[in-house]
Amino acid sequence: MRADTKPNVSYRTWLARAERARRIAATLSADDAKIVETYARECEFQAVRLIERRAVQPLAA
How far apart are CA 51 and CA 61, in angstroms? Predict the structure, then answer.
C-alpha cells in the first residue's frame, strides 16, 4: 500500500514525523543523524505531495 493511501495519514502526520526524526537526529552521531535527516526530508516530501494533491483537485464533470 502506498504511504499516501493509508487511512488517516495527513500532511500534518508527515510533518510531525519529520519533526520527531530531527529531534532524534540531534541526539545521534553525525553519521547516524545523516540517515535520520534523510528520512525527515522524505517525510516532508510526502507532506508536500499530499498538499499539492489537495490543491489540484480534478473538476467534476
Answer: 23
Contact 61, 28 (CB under 8 A): no
Asked if residue 40 belongs to a domain, the reply is yes
pLDDT of residue 5: 55
DSSP state of 34: H
Range of the domain at 42: 8-55
Give the model confidence (pLDDT) of 6-47 as tens digits: 556 799 999 999 999 999 999 999 999 999 999 999 999 999
Encoded amino acid at 8, one letter:
N
The pTM score is 0.75
In a domain, 39, yes or no: yes
Is residue 51 within 8 A of residue 4, CB to CB? The reply is no
